[in-house]
Design goal:
The protein is α/β, with parallel strands linked by helices. The protein is 44% helix and 17% strand. A 7-stranded parallel sheet has the order 3-2-1-6-7-8-9, sandwiched between helices. A 7-stranded mixed sheet has the order 12-13-11-10-14-15-16. The model is unreliable at 73-100 (pLDDT under 50).
Length: 384
């Protein structure tokens, strides 16, 4: 099939997960055009453009892929918290320019190619294209869990106003898709009215994570720390105060030894190795790393970014499932408690089962087969 695949460009989690789905689609002989913005464009362009055939060059039956850059939205953070007001203002001011800049991609790269269906990883460009042109849509992301599943009241009440605002945003983002695949390390029940169109799958794992060789937590010698806020001056002193433990720290863009902390610049191979051989993970509430940590059976100490309900929900489930701790700050006392309770958390998280993306791949196959049927296309046209 000719598939238009939209990837939201803010953050890298959607891009890394989409890379796994895209590799599978190309391996199955599909032709895919990917529309993506911001940092995610550079990542996917590097991953695919020099390694796979272009759609205009592929032989019969050969999978192919094009990576097309579009202009997307930008999110702002201040001292580790999501700055909603600044983000909204910035993007409202940018909207007219975004529309003009994306016209070329819309007509030159997509319309004339005549895609047969759309897959959207929380991306509006591809979704709106499908709606305008009457194409079937498959949604793949982790955010839809807030709209399409029954979340516990206790989780909502952690920040009820933020939950309601986030749910409203998610509901409005990609309504009326023909199928929703939700990737998650926790599995609340799907709301009854969405059962026929919603599938939950385990975290979508990149090949390097699937190929990793995790060691028993009891044999590990360090904790992995992922910190994206370079302005947090208290992090290293707090870690240094836990003098009997070693910490490997990523995200500060430094290469040095500070007491019991080894600061490392990012490399995928190094990061995956340090994750798989860690006693546990200290991170925010971002879904990608938490899903990888749980899948590799690593305990988690999660400090979600403030004003980000999605991260709060992930951290809440880490605590609820017994996989680790949910805290508002990285401080010495709760961190010592986490170190002491690591064996307890390790035993719980070891019960999590990952299926090596098999449910995702089988859902992709069955959904695209459904999209290809004449009956389905007649139904789409009738609804339109």
């Amino acid at each position: 099939m000719r598939i238009l695949y939209g990837v939201v460009g803010e953050g890298m989690g959607h891009a890394t997960r989409s890379k796994t789905s895209l590799e599978y689609l190309v391996s199955r002989g599909h032709h895919v055009k990917v529309v993506v913005s911001n940092r995610a464009y550079g990542f996917l362009d590097k991953a695919f453009t020099s390694s796979f055939p272009r759609t205009s060059e592929a032989r019969e039956g050969q999978g192919a892929i094009d990576i097309i850059e579009i202009r997307g939205l930008i999110m702002h953070y201040v001292e580790g918290a999501f700055d909603e007001a600044r983000s909204v203002l910035t993007n409202v001011l940018r909207v007219p320019g975004l529309l003009a800049e994306n016209v070329g991609a819309y007509y030159d790269d997509v319309v004339r190619w005549k895609p047969q269906c759309v897959i959207s990883d929380f991306d509006s460009f591809a979704y709106l294209f499908a709606k305008v042109h009457g194409l079937p849509i498959l949604s793949i992301d982790n955010q839809q869990i807030m709209q399409r599943c029954e979340l516990p009241e206790a989780a909502k009440n952690e920040d009820l106003s933020s939950f309601r605002a986030t749910k409203a945003f998610v509901k409005a983002k990609l309504p009326g898709c023909d199928k929703y695949v939700i990737t998650s390390f926790f599995y609340p029940p799907v709301r009854e009215k969405y059962l026929d169109k919603t599938v939950l799958v385990p975290p979508i794992l990149r090949k390097s994570i699937l190929d990793a060789k995790p060691i028993p937590v009891a044999d590990a010698k360090h904790y992995l720390v992922y910190q994206t806020s370079t302005s947090d001056s208290s992090l290293i002193p707090t870690l240094n105060s836990i003098a009997d433990q070693k910490f490997v720290v990523y995200g500060l863009n430094r290469d040095e030894q500070l007491g019991n902390c080894t600061l490392k610049p990012f490399s995928e191979a190094g990061f995956v190795h340090d994750l798989a051989t860690s006693r546990g993970v200290l991170s925010n509430g971002g879904y990608s790393l938490l899903g990888e940590a749980v899948s590799l059976h690593r305990p988690v100490f999660s400090v979600p970014v403030r004003n980000q309900y999605e991260q709060l929900l992930n951290a809440w489930y880490v605590r609820e499932l017994g996989y680790g701790m949910f805290e508002e700050h990285i401080e010495a006392a709760p961190l010592r408690a986490f170190v002491q309770r690591t064996p307890e958390f390790a035993a719980k998280v070891a019960t999590f089962h990952h299926d090596s993306n098999q449910k995702l791949f089988s859902t992709l196959d069955s959904t695209l087969e459904e999209f290809e049927t004449d009956t389905f296309h007649r139904e789409v046209r009738r609804k339109g």
